[in-house]
Design a protein that fits this description.
Helices cover 65% and strands 0% of the residues. By secondary structure, it is mostly helical. It has a domain of 48 residues. Helix 1 runs antiparallel to helix 2. The protein is rod-shaped and about 85 Å long. This is Cell division protein A N-terminal domain-containing protein.
């Protein structure tokens, strides 16, 4: 993606400037606008995917049965070798 952005940036600027580079300037603005739009869309899609993944995980956790804690067994006693 970076290579595409660099390529578009290099194509937007000519090797030699003319006296009135308004057409090139307009192209540069369009390229930047398109890049910014793609960046915003990419971030929005990433956030949406992350939110969907977290919703799935939370749904799985809520469906798990409550953990049973054995309160009678408190661990190793003082008389045992560990």
């Amino acid at each position: 993606m970076t290579a595409v952005a660099v390529g578009l940036f290099e194509q937007a600027y000519p090797t030699q400037w003319t006296s009135t580079p308004t057409g090139t300037t307009a192209l540069v603005v369009e390229v930047y606008a398109a890049g910014l739009f793609l960046l915003v869309v990419g971030v929005a899609l990433a956030l949406r995917a992350r939110r969907s993944a977290l919703d799935v995980i939370e749904g799985d956790v809520e469906q798990l049965p409550d953990a049973v804690v054995d309160e009678d067994h408190g661990g190793a006693t003082g008389g045992t070798d560990v």
